[in-house]
């Protein structure tokens, strides 16, 4: 009887192990995608800053951050203890919200770029970002977390986009790429943490993760 | 292409509870945030200062006066502000203080813009903070585009190319639109696919009529003016080119050591059209950069190259011109050359090493004697070499000849 129970227990654990293993694979792939996009962004950012011209291309330049809807991302920067304590679902949700906003912002950036080569690089990057968003949504589904779905792209805007002057638009573009860079750095750490937490959960069911 | 974006709004009520929790968390994170990834970023109100004019466009050599009006709340004196243009500080002698909150700068004899996105003219507070900026576009109106030429691939599409005219540099973003219309029917159309591979090109993929001429021209425009090229008139059938001939094979002609036979197929895309193809062949030695062209190939799909060097590798290419397509009187446009195909002429008989030559026989017998003696010694004085004999040596020679033959066969089959 005990043996039977143990066997059933074994099978259940195995099923769970397979599911968790799939999720860990997905997280690993999402992590790799994040690193790849981070690498791509470095090149695009350098070219884009040259396109904007000095002082944007100067190393220490930092204009004031515009307070506009296309930069209404949750801040990548956060207190260490809060970041560590983030529950898996909330962690993924923050990533999803950030990239939804940033994807839109980069598309707008691409549209208003005069240089055709840069425009196609940015659009290519957008498809990568779109893939990342898809991966995150997929992970959220697998872990049973409620997702935003495609709501951010279909609900109407709060107000029509204000007409910006070209300089302000440059500052906005500068900050979009900067936020994107921060988030890609942060996401790499987020996915590493997620992988660790899933492994801990698997090794000792009910064990409080560190 | 419309990329108008919409931004996250209040989510629908199914998710509202999760949303409000998440929003609360996001708010608490942002209010308690200690930046671990970024240096401290100053969040600004939308108007620290206002610059005018915004985004002006001017011809090269113009002068411009720009005003920076700083917000009174900041408590900054106009005399403490300074200007930079493309990151370089402008001399105070060019500034004028108009009021306690207004500072202007005058720029003379402006050069063409440093980047197409516009020169960056920025108004700074005394500690270097950016208060406001304006993009200045200094350039020239476009010159008349010229050298407009077009060609069609297999009568299906039309590609056009032009030059920008003059120096080709306007310093500001200049848009080129290729327009076309059927000569005797008024409706004007615009080409959509620009810079496919190269700048100043456009591609029209479909819906082109034949047997009726088109009028084609290019319109250039930027913020300072516009210009139109001359109109060219052409019939699609007069500017047809095609794909390079496929299945190019180069083979030896038996033992002839100074000739090669070249065979190819006519381009399949034009097989349904009435036309007489013209072909051209070119060939060169493997290690030479000089091509020899055979021009009088006519419309056959084979040719014999003569007067070649024996025992040499040649590279051969073929191209096609669809002449007289659908009765067009004009010469068409040559296709690209086919991929190079390699082949070698046979070695001249005199140079072939054979065992029938009496001189080499003599040499051989001395060699064989010596080898026999050597192998005998090896068998006596070494372990494990008991099979070494003159028989093994003969087997090796046969193997060597076979290996040479296979190598030649590979070259002959004309692998490119």
Structure in words:
- The complex is a heterodimer of chains A (210) and B (416).
- Helices cover 71% and strands 0% of the residues of chain A.
- Chain A is mainly α and 210 residues long.
- In chain A, helix 3 (88-111) packs antiparallel against helix 6.
- The longest helix of chain A is centred in the first third of the chain and has 51 residues, at 2-52.
- Chain A starts with a helix and ends in a 7-residue tail after the last helix.
- Chain B is elongated.
- The longest helix of chain B is centred in the last third of the chain and has 24 residues, at 358-381.
- Chain B contains three helices and 26 strands.
- In chain B, a hairpin with a 6-residue loop joins strand 22 and strand 23.
- Chain B is α+β, with helices and mostly antiparallel strands and 416 residues long.
- Chain B has four domains: 10-139, Immunoglobulin-like, CATH 2.60.40; 146-237, Immunoglobulins (Immunoglobulin-like, Sandwich), CATH 2.60.40.10; 242-351, Immunoglobulin-like; 365-415.
- Chain B has helices spanning 16-31, 358-381, 390-412, and strands at 49-52, 57-59, 64-70, 82-85, 88-89, 95-99, 102-107, 119-124, 130-139, 146-153, 158-163, 175-182, 189-190, 193-194, 201-204, 214-222, 225-228, 232-234, 240-241, 249-252, 260-263, 276-285, 292-294, 302-305, 313-323, 341-344.
Features:
heterodimer, A: 210 residues, mainly alpha, disordered C terminus, B: 416 residues, alpha+beta, Immunoglobulin-like, 3 helices, 26 strands, 15% helix, 32% strand, elongated, secreted (chain A), PRF/CT (chain A)
SSE diagram, text form:
The complex is a heterodimer of chains A (210) and B (416).
Chain A: H1 2-52, H2 80-85, H3 88-111, H4 116-142, H5 151-154, H6 166-203
Helix pairs in contact in A: 1-4, 1-6, 3-4, 3-6
Chain B: H1 16-31, E1 49-52, E2 57-59, E3 64-70, E4 82-85, E5 88-89, E6 95-99, E7 102-107, E8 119-124, E9 130-139, E10 146-153, E11 158-163, E12 175-182, E13 189-190, E14 193-194, E15 201-204, E16 214-222, E17 225-228, E18 232-234, E19 240-241, E20 249-252, E21 260-263, E22 276-285, E23 292-294, E24 302-305, E25 313-323, E26 341-344, H2 358-381, H3 390-412
Parallel strand pairs in B: 2-9, 10-19
Antiparallel strand pairs in B: 1-3, 3-7, 4-5, 4-8, 6-7, 8-9, 10-11, 11-15, 12-13, 12-16, 14-15, 16-17, 16-18, 20-21, 21-24, 22-23, 22-25, 25-26
